[in-house]
Each structure stands twice: as structure tokens, then as C-alpha cells.
Amino acid sequence: MLYIIGLGLNADGISKYGLEIVKRCKRVYLENYTVDFPYTKEELAHVIEKKLLDAGREKVESLELVDEAQKMDVALLVYGSPLTATTHISLIEEAKRLGIRYKVICNASILDAVAETGLQLYKFGKTASMPKWDEKKNFTPDSFMKIVQENQSMKAHSLILTDIGLSFPKALEQLEKSAKIHKISLKKIVVCQRLGTKNRKIIYKDVGELREYDGVKSPYCIVIPSKLHFVEKEVLEGR
């Protein structure tokens, strides 16, 4: 059987049920290519008391885990919510095709933790992903800003998730360049660091001030607010 288990946002975030399942699985994989973890693999292994095998993009996308699940109980541990990445849906579809039993065990993710900013969840639009640019290879995609444009057209907030390995100063630079290309005016934005952990931090500053700001740790995300409700404004400015 194949289990896809959400870890939540901190090393102790796995649910009691998820932990019970993990302990009876023959193989336990840790998906390691969609996020910069706020804790170490060793810290997680200590919590679950099992050996963790790495599952990179190639391992997951090859659907080898489904083949293994034909013979034994296999768990794939995913940071946050287990089905945020589309690759994990592919695992389920393959399991269905082959008649292999599977179970998804949900958990908290950045998509609900971002409510700690004070911004109302129902006022968020589409979520955007900012890739890590490689200017030497002329890889500088800015299409994520089109999603921000769409959201702003309906007065919705924009949550931007950043690529693994993308430092905050570089992300801010990419954000400003992309905004200029798409003629979007950036004023105050929200930066969320390690929500759901003891090192969480929520920063609400003008983009110009953030250029000089040092110390944002991964994982982090960026929110470009739209028109603020007076309660949202009160919470953000009270930080």
C-alpha cells in the first residue's frame, strides 16, 4: 500500500495517525525537492524513529514508489500538505491505474498558515510560484507576475511561493524586475518566514526597505496584498 503523508510545518508536525502509519511501513521516503526544510533530516528521523530514504524529483516522477507499494507498505513524507505538488497527484493516478491501494494523510500547509499575517484567506487569489533564475542560461521567467495581475484585477491578495535554493535578496530582485516588466507597482509587501515553527517571522515593509533587510531564512514566501480590509491593515501594521 502507498501512503502519502503530510508533515505539517515543523519537525513535530506529523499527526498521531501519520506517525502510526509510518511506524508500520517497510520503507519511508522523504520528498526533498520542493522545499527548503526548516529543520534537518536527522531531526525528523528522531521524531518518527525510522530510517529516512531520500526521494528526489527523479525518484518520485519515475513512479518507482508505486511499483514498490505493490509488494510492501511504502510511505512518502511531504512537507506541509501532501498534495500541493502535482507530481504527488500523479502517484495516486498511477496507483489507481494499477489497482494499488493508497491513502493520503493531510496536514497543515503554508496555504492556511499564511492566515497568521492577518490577511483573510478568502481574499486570496491564485497562488503563484517564483522560479530561481539563471541569467547565464538566459532563464529569467516572469510569467508568475501574470497571476499577480489577474489577482489584482479582482482585488485579491497574491501568495508567491519561492523555488528551492532561492535566497531572499535574489527573490526580491526578481520580484522587482518582473513587476517592472508587467507594469505592476510594488509598495508594501508581506514576507513570511518559517510559518508554523518557533522561528516564524512576519514582515510587512516597503519594498525599498526590504532591500536593506537581512536575515530572512528559508522556507519563506511573499504576499503582495491587494486592497486591505481595515482589520487586515490593523493587524499588519501592528507588527
Tell me the CATH architecture of the largest domain: 2-Layer Sandwich
By secondary-structure content and strand pairing, the structural class works out as: alpha/beta
Number of DSSP strand runs: 10
Which fold name fills CATH's third level, the topology of the largest domain?
Methyltransferase, Cobalt-precorrin-4 Transmethylase, Domain 2
Compute the CA-based radius of gyration. Answer: 19 Å
Beta-strand content bin: 15-25%
Task: Describe the overall structure.
This protein has 239 residues and is α/β, with parallel strands linked by helices. The protein folds into two domains: 2-108, Cobalt-precorrin-4 Transmethylase, domain 1 (3-Layer(aba) Sandwich); 111-237, Methyltransferase, Cobalt-precorrin-4 Transmethylase, Domain 2 (2-Layer Sandwich). The protein is 33% helix and 20% strand. It has helices at residues 16-23, 41-48, 57-61, 64-68, 86-98, 110-113, 144-153, 168-181, 207-210, 230-237, and strands at 2-6, 27-31, 53-55, 74-78, 102-105, 128-130, 158-162, 188-193, 201-206, 220-224. The strands form two sheets. A five-stranded parallel sheet has the order 3-2-4-1-5, sandwiched between helices. A hairpin with a 7-residue loop joins strand 8 (188-193) and strand 9 (201-206).
What topology does this entry show?
Layout: E1 2-6, H1 16-23, E2 27-31, H2 41-48, E3 53-55, H3 57-61, H4 64-68, E4 74-78, H5 86-98, E5 102-105, H6 110-113, E6 128-130, H7 144-153, E7 158-162, H8 168-181, E8 188-193, E9 201-206, H9 207-210, E10 220-224, H10 230-237
